[in-house]
UniProtKB/TrEMBL annotation:
The keyword Signal applies. It comes from Lolium multiflorum. It comes from the Eukaryota. SUPFAM superfamilies: SGNH hydrolase. Residues 1-25 form the signal peptide. This is GDSL esterase/lipase. GO terms for molecular function: hydrolase activity, acting on ester bonds.
Amino acid sequence: MASSSWLPVVVCALVLLQAVPAARAARAFFVFGDSLVDNGNNNYLITTARADSWPYGIDTPDHRATGRFSNGKNVPDLISESLGSEPVLPYLSPELDGDKLLVGANFASAGIGILNDTGIQFANIIRISKQLTYFEQYQHRLAKLIGPDQAARVVAGALTLITLGGNDFVNNYYLIPYSVRSREFSLPDYIKYILSEYKQVLRRIHGLGARRILVTGVGPIGCVPAELALHSLDGRCDPELQRASEAYNPQLEVMLAELNAEVGNGAGGNGPVYVGVNTRRMHADFIDDPHAYGFASATVACCGQGPYNGIGICTMVSSLCADRDQFVFWDAFHPTERANKLIAQQYVSGTTDYISPMNLSTIINLDRHLHD
């Protein structure tokens, strides 16, 4: 039986998520990255990295798969709620047109990484360089709608989220024993290499006009059910993958500080452009002590097969849990909607241990004059 001590935490989280002023609905939101933030772009691609069939989306209002790798909402959806806005549409959606462009766009694509050779097994995914090309296309479309000057103001005043890095370890360096990248680089040198590549990506996003950019670190990749199924007999996280994220995240923080020193202040001259999000710490809270947050399991996925339900993908023939709220993980890699809500709350009101140098509530307050 799960502990009842989590109730105040969840109630507080839901209240605070709804408490950020809805008046910020006019602020656009842009999303770049991988499956943790993809909300349906891969539905429009011929690829195996898709979440467009049941039981994905089982807890949405119409119980249908949306392309999100979740039973319901993902973190971008919950951030949109905190902005007082509707969820942004996938860039490839034919519905993204007219006034919908003013809300922003989601360019993310499941399977990608910082490096172009990450996720090659999935084929036909939108690599980060292509996502940025689409961002340029989006701005041309927006300029046709509202004029170039106003379009530039929308982009500069927007919130941007980018989530990359996990696949560069899970689906590249550690994908198979003696992978090409692991033979080419020691782990410390690989981390330096991908961060140098990431730095160029982040510079380009700024060069394309983004002025408030949330950059997530790599989560506890050694603790996901897929890795437990491969490496763990007792439910303990894989130490080698954990070592990778432990080494990567502090260096990412240093790199973001360097970028902030390069570009100066963000939107309206208030505070930094780049904000670091410690997703490893956010996940670790309820992986380390799931019962304190009302979860029955932080090792077994709700949907899947094999040990820890961590083998293969979630399909209609998979083992499926009855109560998704009891599980940290929805499938072999991705959190449930309720876990996403706890993660999103740390974006909104977390201390600098979770999001630094300031959280989303502070950003919204600082940038309020840009949207008044």
